[in-house]
């Protein structure tokens, strides 16, 4: 401990001596630093004095420099003013010079322009003079030409006037002749009607006579029986028996003769009836047009506005309310279009009622005329329903023909009847009565005999109409073939024409008369205008063929109506008109049904169909001739 204290004490004493050393060193350094700082301060104060003196010099230099600068600025301002003045006077001088120069140039220009203007004026005057002369010359020339033309035209107009007057006179004369003809035809019609009435009375009388004869026959038969009994009874009296027998024989002979006479009268009456019937048909016109509007189906909701103004009697008019049109002023109007035909059938008419109107034409075919009945109209307007449904015109016409032919047998007539059913599709003929596998394959040819005016269908199946059930069979075969065809081309039945042809050849063994008539019942392809742009390939061909054949039919009817005897009729332009060549025109009776849809959506097509039908209705075709041979 003591040692440690002694070490600590020594350490403390060493540190104390070190501290006093440090203090003396610091004192020495302090005095040295003070001496150095003192010398620096005296140096700085000397430098400060120097700098002050420099600053003073610099200030006086600055003042001098400012004075000089002020002087120089003033001098420069004077110089600038002098220069500006000098420049302005130079500018004035040059402006004066330029103005003078411009004046001079303007003067020179004016002089040159005046000179050029004068030159031009002189040239224009010269040209004007030249052109005026030329113009006068041309005017003179034209005047002469116009004068010449005017006198030529006046001469021509006078010629035309004279010609027109002559034509007018001849047309007047022709009109008078036509008037006379019409009056005579009217008188003839009245006569014919009166004759018909007389003949009807005669027929009734004859029928009464026949009934009387039949009664007489029966009476005679009864008395014959009584006589026989009497003879038996009077067996013993041979003379009285012979007398009674002779009596009876004579009376029977008388009765037979009376019956023969009655039969002969009946035959004569039939010949007369035919003549009168066909005279009446001719007077009705050889081309007739009837219109039929079908009823709307339950699911058809928007009907068109179709009216039948004279529906209380035998309706002949149909009135269609057209689509709405808006004028430039915004007024909405609707027009009503009226059409009249030989007969109009409304939606309530049944096929039976329609057939009544055509049954007389069917009779004409039996009497030896060529008859053509068409159904024209857009798809779905009721053509097939009218023509070949179960109670349509084909079954009804054939049933009537069969019944009539049977009835005429007792008047000595025997008929041979044969039916064909063909389809015209894409300008080729197909046999609807042939085998379905042959459809579109077997070539069917149409041959015409111009001397006999007869058409034959080579390679086509002809069905003899020997019983009414045959028609049913025929229609079934045709319908089967049409449905086979329909699977080949959708909607084919609407896109083809079907023609039912019934040939009727009659012979009267008693009178020696013979008649050959043909009844053609035609269901035409849908008449809607088909848009070429929307069709392509097979459909386009179909479309073109339908449009072509329908317009050809129109052309043929039109040509028949306007042509003179022997003029060219374009039958060859389509397969349909070619086939019907001898059943269209002077030697035939034609009836066209225009079928109409009752719907608003079909209004435009309905109007187009009615317009076409009106055109046909206005056509007058020459008198039909009966095909008879002695
Ligand atoms: N007078 C009518 N009474 C009742 N239904 C009718 C009548 N006319 C047509 N129809 C019906 O209207 C529909 C269309 O008629 P239809 O097939 O006869 O027309 P279309 O003109 O022959 O058509 P497509 O050209 O397609 O053969 C059928 O369902 C038919 O039964």
TrEMBL record:
Domain of life according to the entry: Eukaryota
Annotated segments matching region Disordered: 1-24, 85-114
GO biological process: microtubule-based movement; mitotic spindle assembly
Domain Kinesin motor, chain residue ranges per copy: 286-619
Keyword entries, A-Z: ATP-binding, Coiled coil, Cytoplasm, Cytoskeleton, Microtubule, Motor protein, Nucleotide-binding
Gene3D superfamilies assigned: Kinesin motor domain (3.40.850.10)
Gene Ontology MF: a single term: microtubule binding
Keyword ATP-binding: yes
Amino-acid positions noted as binding ATP in the UniProt annotation, renumbered to this chain: 377-384
A Pfam family that the UniProt record links to this protein: Kinesin
Cellular compartment(s): Cytoplasm, Cytoskeleton
Family of this protein: Belongs to the TRAFAC class myosin-kinesin ATPase superfamily. Kinesin family. KIN-14 subfamily.
PANTHER family, per database record: KINESIN-LIKE PROTEIN KLP-3 (PTHR47972), PROTEIN CLARET SEGREGATIONAL (PTHR47972:SF45)
Protein name: Kinesin-like protein
Naturally occurring in which organism (per UniProt): Sporormia fimetaria CBS 119925
Source species taxonomy: Eukaryota, Fungi, Dikarya, Ascomycota, Pezizomycotina
């Amino acid at each position: 401990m003591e040692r440690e204290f002694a070490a600590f004490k020594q350490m403390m004493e060493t540190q104390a001596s070190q501290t006093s050393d440090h203090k003396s060193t610091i004192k020495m350094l302090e005095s040295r630093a003070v001496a150095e700082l003192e010398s620096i301060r005296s140096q700085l104060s000397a430098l400060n004095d120097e700098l002050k003196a420099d600053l003073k010099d610099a200030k006086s230099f600055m003042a001098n420099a400012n004075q000089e600068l002020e002087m120089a600025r003033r001098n420069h301002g004077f110089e600038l003013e002098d220069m500006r003045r000098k420049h302005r006077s130079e500018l004035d001088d040059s402006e004066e010079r330029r103005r003078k120069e411009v004046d001079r140039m303007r003067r020179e220009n004016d002089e040159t322009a005046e000179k050029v203007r004068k030159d031009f004026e002189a040239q224009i005057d010269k040209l004007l003079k030249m052109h005026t002369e030329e113009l006068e010359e041309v005017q003179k020339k034209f005047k002469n030409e116009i004068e010449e033309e005017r006198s030529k035209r006046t001469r021509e107009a006078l010629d035309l006037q004279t010609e027109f007057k002559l034509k007018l006179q001849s047309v007047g004369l022709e009109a008078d002749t036509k008037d006379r003809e019409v009056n005579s035809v009217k008188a003839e019609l009245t006569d014919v009607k009166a004759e018909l009435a007389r003949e009807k009375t005669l027929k009734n009388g004859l029928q009464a006579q026949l009934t009387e004869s039949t009664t007489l026959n029966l009476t005679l038969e009864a008395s014959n029986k009584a006589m026989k009994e009497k003879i038996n009874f009077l067996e013993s009296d041979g003379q009285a028996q012979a007398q009674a027998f002779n009596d009876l024989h004579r009376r029977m002979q008388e009765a037979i003769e009376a019956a023969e006479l009655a039969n002969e009268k009946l035959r004569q009456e039939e010949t007369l009836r035919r003549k009168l019937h066909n005279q009446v048909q001719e007077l009705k016109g050889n081309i007739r047009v009837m219109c039929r509007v079908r009823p709307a189906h339950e699911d058809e909701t928007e009907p068109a506005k179709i009216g039948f103004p004279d529906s209380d009697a035998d309706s002949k008019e149909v009135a269609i309310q057209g689509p709405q049109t808006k004028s430039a002023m915004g007024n909405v109007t609707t027009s009503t279009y009226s059409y009249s035909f030989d007969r109009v059938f409304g939606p309530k008419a049944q096929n039976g009622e329609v057939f009544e109107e055509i049954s007389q034409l069917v009779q004409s075919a039996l009497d030896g005329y060529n008859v053509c009945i068409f159904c024209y109209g857009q798809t779905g307007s009721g053509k097939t329903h009218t023509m070949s449904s179960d109670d349509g015109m084909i079954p009804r016409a054939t049933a009537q023909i069969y019944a009539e032919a049977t009835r005429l047998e007792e008047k000595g007539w025997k008929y041979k009847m044969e039916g064909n059913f063909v389809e015209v599709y894409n300008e080729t003929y197909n046999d609807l009565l042939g085998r379905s596998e042959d459809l579109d394959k077997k070539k069917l040819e149409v041959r015409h005999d111009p001397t006999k005016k007869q058409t034959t269908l080579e390679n086509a199946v002809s069905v003899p109409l020997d019983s009414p059930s045959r028609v049913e069979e025929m229609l079934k075969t045709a319908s089967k073939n049409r449905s086979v065809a329909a699977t080949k081309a959708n909607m084919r039945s609407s896109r083809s024409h079907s023609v039912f042809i019934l040939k009727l050849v009659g012979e009267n063994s008693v009178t020696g008369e013979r008649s050959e008539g043909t009844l053609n019942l035609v269901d035409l392809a849908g008449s809607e205008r088909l848009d070429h742009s929307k069709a392509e390939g097979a459909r386009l061909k179909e479309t073109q063929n339908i449009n072509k054949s329908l317009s050809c039919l129109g052309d043929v009817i039109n040509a028949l109506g306007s042509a003179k005897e022997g003029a060219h009729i374009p039958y060859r332009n389509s397969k349909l008109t070619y086939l019907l060549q001898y059943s269209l025109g002077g030697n035939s009776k034609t009836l066209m049904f225009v079928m109409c849809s009752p719907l608003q959506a079909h209004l435009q097509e309905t109007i187009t169909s009615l317009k076409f039908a009106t055109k046909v209705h206005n056509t007058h075709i020459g008198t039909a001739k009966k095909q008879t041979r002695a």
